Queue: 4 jobs
Job 1
Amino acid sequence: MKHKHHIIPKHAGGTDETDNLVELSVEEHAEAHRVLYEQYGRWQDKLAWLGLSGRIGIEDLIRLAASKADKSWVKTEKGKKALKDRWDKRRASGKDKAWNKGLTKETDKRLEIASENNKHYRELGVLSNIGDHMRGKEFTEEHKAKLSEIAKNRPKIRCEFCNEEHIKQMYIRWHGDKCKRRQSNV
């Protein structure tokens, strides 16, 4: 099986012109991207090399590409306009609206039926609330120790007003703008 390889990769500004393409076997294609990665250090070449050589699967490729991709174009005027145009087109086609948007149990029979079904299934024990599967569960001491160790390593933020340390998520949600010393300084 032959692959078409871009001598100058598209992610580096290469084109689909015939003088920029060469046919290679899968192994040669992987090797070409390995050489490009070692020469220029671009993450796209590394992913191409690892994927073509079979060292990582498609799920890992997608995950790594998504984490490495430069999303800064969204912050440019051109990017903002492109996203706005895309969303406007979606709205015009009606694809972004949920079937129940703006409806209540009082105004739509389907929601009333769904609500009654939920109550019925909860009574039967078929449907549970979020977290019900963990309620009342006993943890082993080993598991508790692991959870405690993980909690110790969470990043913390120190409040500039009261000098207390808080886990980042808790600081943002509960402490940040609501710090009592901050309010007394304002």
Job 2
Amino acid sequence: MAIHQEARAPRATRQAARSPIRSPDPDHRPDEHTFQLLVDAVVDYAIYLISPDGRVQSWNRGAERIKGYRADQIIGQPISVFYTPEDAAAGRPAHNLRAAIEHGHFTEQAWRVRKDGTRFWADIVLTPLRDEQGALTGFAKVTRDLTERRASEEHERQLAVEREARSAAEGALRARERFLSIASHELRTPVASLQLAIDAILIRRERGTLDTQRLDDLLHRMERATARMRTLLGELLDVSRLSDGERNLEVEQVELAELVGDVADRFAEVGRPGRIATRLEPVAIDVDASRIDQVVCNLIENALKYSSDADTVDITLSKTDDGAVIEVTDAGRGLDMGGVDLFQPFGRGANVNDTQGMGLGLFIAHQIVHRHGGTITAANRATGAGATFRVFLPQRPTPQSAG
């Protein structure tokens, strides 16, 4: 039988199979027996022939070592005995032979079964063989056992997963410690103010020196302290709800200029006249009004916090082809991130350590905007001091973001 196509064995094996045994006669080529001796000497690869109907026709030492069958036990048997029961039931043996005929060869890595029933991870090359007239005479198959290498790779992957999980756990622990540190620091101030006011009332009442004016002053101090604590606790609750995806959006069509203008008016009532300037273009889009109100509040509060009373905060609203853009610009100290993500919990710039806050307002704004399918970005102003926060909101939230 003349064989015109050889198996796609690994390079070293293919080279050995193609290289003639040297002899004084340069025209001399090894006979079939010599070639069979060469194939049989290979122990790291199972190399054997398969009949056109899928039965084992030859067997080398590598096949015996890898699969566990002696030649007299396996020659004549169907190749389906090497497949897992599920692959055999699914018709994989016949499918692979057909694929080799159709494409000129077939390769795969899959589980195979040894004589004792154990499985090994095999790298397989299957090549059809034809005679001089092109008629199919069978197949050549080369199989390599990659079980140990696969186990090593799986072990490395598992180690990588464990390293990633450990890194995430350590990051979560650092975030928790930072949260406790920042939260305790931020809450300590209003609690201390509240306690001092209460102590002052009790002492003055005991001494009989608690006049109405002094009582009003202390009550106002207590009111400011409780308001501060209420704001901090509200932010923490919002972070928890948003992170857990607890609250769905309650979407309705909103005239965004009215909403943004109303938020700006609320801040203008308690600040310097003219400190907040607005330029609002009418635009109606579908949003959760209360949540976008919260976004605008957080951005204005952030701008006021990091700029002086003499600076103006500019708020613009403009319509786009697919939604709306809100920009809040201040003339404050600008952004100096130092590698910190502003929109992550407790993300605060490197130049704001002297300003109260837990760095949650922008994170909350980011989460709300993201759930609307929008984007929020921050950048220093191109000219002069200060920063601009830009929010894009689509015409309507996508089902994924709204859910």
Job 3
Amino acid sequence: MELLRQIRHKVADSISHLPRYLCTETVDRKSLEPDLWGRGRKASSCAEILAAAEKPNAKMLLFSSDRLRLDVAIARDGEMYSWVGGGQFEDQSLGDLVKQGATSTGAFGSYLQAIFVAEAANFSFKGEGEWNGRHVLNYTFRVPLERSGYTVGNRAISRLIGYSGSFAADAATLDLLRLELHTDAMPAELEMCAAETILDYTQVRMNNVDFLLPADVNMRIVNTDARESRNRTVFTGCHQFLGESRLIFEEQNPTSTPEADSRSKTVNLSAGLKLSIALAESIDLATAAAGDPVTGRLTRAVKDSSSDLTIPKGTKLNGRIFELRSSYGVATSLEFGLRWEGIELSGANHRVELLVKSAVPGTARLPLAHSKLQEVTAEFRPDERGVGFFMLPEIGKNYRIPVGFEAEWVTLLAVPPVK
């Protein structure tokens, strides 16, 4: 218990002195479904589903997968997110930014604060052991519902959940190495049976001081339909906000400084202009992620008669991958979401908002060998303004969306300058 007190004090000291800092997080997400042929009849209750999942011969089939890449800023009042390299942190949750699929927050301080600092958990010592070649002290803990701040939810509802878990600390240094959390039984309205999170921590040196930061987070959610969501999150490039660093928030005026003026302006293009845009670089599914920036080029000149502006062929556009989701079955298919955000004119990046032409086959063209083109279905969705979704029905294992992937887009009304 004396060692536990020292471990808790060390964790509390680390998170109380954490500087403001930024990390890039990459999340690999998988959705799996049970192989009913190998499992027999479909389980009908959470107890049956969880018991079946723990059987040695249990087999899960990969249903879909995708990858996200975001920047996360950590300050005393919590975590803030933006797409990687975006430079602007919006006042919204991670779920609102990502929209679909399982996400999690709290790896940087919330879990540690709740378990090691607040008087919410009950602890038990479970002995010494080895972990990754290190001599460790093992403890278990439990946080009951009435003292829990752990929230689990979907897009409609959220609920507080009690939880339990374990952790391992280095026996020599008392540094926290691994933390595991397991939820109690879930309310039926969440349509989840269980959720577990495993966090591996490391010491990171910033400004000549060592801090405890997450290096790797694995999350597993088992749903009431027996499907599972499995996320693995890794954090890279963590660095402190120094005196000259600035964070730009969405509600602030992005044209209020010379730096912002050079980064993004607004060009008043007429609505209804047709822009044919081709990717300027390939997109490798093995490494690319939703959130990654992409560039494109106009494949033909565009004349805006209302402003007497001609945009020449080859003009560069800056955009971002919105989605790269592979689905598996008889053949692997890909759903590719793309949003163009800026066009480079007169040495400045001007904000634009474009709409992919309506969901008609042939609005996108995929270059093939021998100068052939494959038509690809494109669609827009009212709840994802400015995003074009492209459906590629059959792709190979090591597929790349090639340079020259081209689609027709239409300008919407120009985004007015922020006042």
Job 4
Amino acid sequence: MERMLNRLVSSRAPACHAVCAALAAFIALCGVAPGAIAADAPKLVVLGTFFQNDNAGLEPTTDAERARLVRTGEDFAKQLAESGRFRIVSLGPEQRTRIDAGQTPGDCGGCELAYGREAGADIVAWIKVQKVSNLILNMNVYMADVASGRMLLVKSVDLRGNTDESWSRSLAYLVKNLVLKANLKPGSS
């Protein structure tokens, strides 16, 4: 296959021009080359992944779950950055300390918007994972317009099983099928 492509490219055959034109049209349709960031991409800050353990008395939060929370937030930011639709901005250590010590974003009377403004973001996002049991969990993604306070996206998936794989597959599904397919334009009504 590789040899055939090299011959096609080196021969400067009309077929090569057709393939290149098709590729250029595909990239134009997508609006941005994979991995490239669109010039008008909004700045987005991910506040993290938060855990609601409904049965903490019977099943305390484990180190594995705490590790999944960190990894899920990091993977969420990475997947959004790789989409080219967002410019990811980081939180400072002082903000991270305040978030970790305070109420959960979404349940704090607008603190998430203040964190977004401090980070210079257009959009603020966070994930909340609710553990009903080791078999039943929900992963919820929230995204809000920092300027208006309007929720841009609230989406949820159910997980079956409390494993690294169930968490990562759920996040991938959320990003690919719900977040990236949504029209997330801050400042629009």
